[in-house]
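Lecture notes, unit on protein representations.

Consider one protein chain, 157 amino acids long.
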Amino acid sequence: MAIGEDVKLGKDVLIPWPDQVNLYGCSIGDNSRVGPFVEIQKNCTVGKSCKVSSHSFLCEGVAIEDEVFIGHGVMFTNGRYPRASNADGSLQTEADWVMEPTRVKRGASVGSNATIVCGVTVGERAVVGAGAVVTKDVPDHAVVAGAPARVIGAAAD
């Protein structure tokens, strides 16, 4: 595990266990914190004053805005139809799939063990419950839970 030379870290980014993260080609904003056993891939952005908790996976195409909380073990996806190989049996490469971006807007919170399927937007100050599977956009200030996630209330500010 490592922090790649191509990672852009803002001021006062806290990574207490730098030898226990895998960061490459990403950017992390000022005053953000990254826990151990986190992977943040290329072309992923984490805004200012965010917390990314341990064991989370932020793949290529994920955009996390400012003041977002990512709980433990949160998983993002970036391909709608993942396959290991092509019809001819050859291993797929980046050229064989379409990356679908995902956005988590300012002040949102994503609970532990949630899965965020590619192509969705989690709204501003929304709350995603622990273990939720988000397959559709989450409105601003909504609370969602379940698999698939559905709106169950409004977030308190």
